């Protein structure tokens, strides 16, 4: 299982920019849930490793089914740390490495689809919402489930 966060501020949505094999795309921060760890704990850990930010998990907002895997995304709010200082193992690889490079970025909501933010269903819903903050609050009430192909 993968756990990730949706971190929306006035500067945009937190994302990880990946450059790999000559392609650039973006992902919501997150990663594999480790043994003995809850999805919420994994989401907090990944936020710190990838973004350098301590977050409070407000709740589950989306579940994405992709390639027979389940991904859970939690609405998060920053409570400490410094954006862009993540030092997890993946954050030190270069674009030429097999894993490619990783960099913390903030994407304006209007650019989520054009920047290839994954998971695409979450990006599309946020980009189309008149108020993404309101949409995320609605998702807290009833998390959405997406099938991504």
Provide an overview of this structure.
21% of the residues lie in helices and 43% in strands. Strands 5-1-7-6-10 form a 5-stranded mixed β-sheet. Strands 2, 3, 4, 8 and 9 form a 5-stranded mixed β-sheet that branches. It has 149 residues and is of the alpha/beta class. It contains 3 helices and 10 strands; from the N terminus they run E-E-E-E-E-H-E-E-E-E-H-H-E. Strand 6 and strand 7 (69-81) form a beta hairpin. The longest helix has 13 residues, at 39-51. Belongs to the Nudix hydrolase family. Its cofactor is Mg(2+).
Strands of the widest sheet, in order across it, are 5-1-7-6-10
Provide the CATH top-level class: Alpha Beta
Alpha carbon gyration radius: 14 Å
The CATH superfamily turns out to be Nucleoside Triphosphate Pyrophosphohydrolase
- The end-to-end distance, rounded to whole angstroms, is 17 Å
| CATH-defined topology | Nucleoside Triphosphate Pyrophosphohydrolase
Low-confidence spans: none
Instruction: State which percent range the strand residues make up.
Output: 35-45%
Overall structural class, as computed from helix and strand content, comes to: alpha/beta
| Whole-number tally of structural domains | 1
Q: Please, what is the average pLDDT?
A: 94
Give, in order, the helices and strands.
Answer: EEEEEHEEEEHHE
CATH architecture type: Alpha-Beta Complex
In DSSP terms, counting alpha (H) and pi (I) runs of 4 or more, how many helices? 3
Oligomer: single chain
| Fraction in helix | 10-25%
The major pleated sheet works out as:
5 strands, mixed
Number of strands: 10
* Shape call: globular
Keywords: Hydrolase, Magnesium
Pfam family, one: NUDIX
Protein name: NUDIX domain-containing protein
Family: Belongs to the Nudix hydrolase family.
């Amino acid at each position: 299982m993968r756990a990730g966060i949706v971190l929306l501020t006035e500067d945009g949505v937190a994302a990880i920019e990946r450059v790999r094999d000559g392609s650039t795309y973006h992902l919501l921060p997150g990663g594999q849930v480790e043994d003995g760890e809850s999805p919420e704990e994994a989401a907090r850990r990944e936020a710190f490793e990838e973004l350098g930010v301590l977050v409070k998990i407000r709740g589950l907002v989306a579940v994405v089914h992709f390639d027979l895997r389940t991904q859970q995304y939690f609405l998060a709010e920053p409570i400490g740390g410094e954006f862009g200082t993540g030092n997890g193992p993946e954050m030190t690889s270069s674009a030429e490495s097999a894993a490619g490079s990783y960099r913390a970025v903030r994407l304006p909501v209007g650019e989520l689809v054009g920047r290839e933010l994954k998971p695409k269903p979450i990006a599309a819903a946020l980009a189309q919402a008149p108020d993404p903050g309101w949409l995320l609050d609605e998702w807290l009430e009833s998390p959405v489930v997406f099938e991504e192909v």
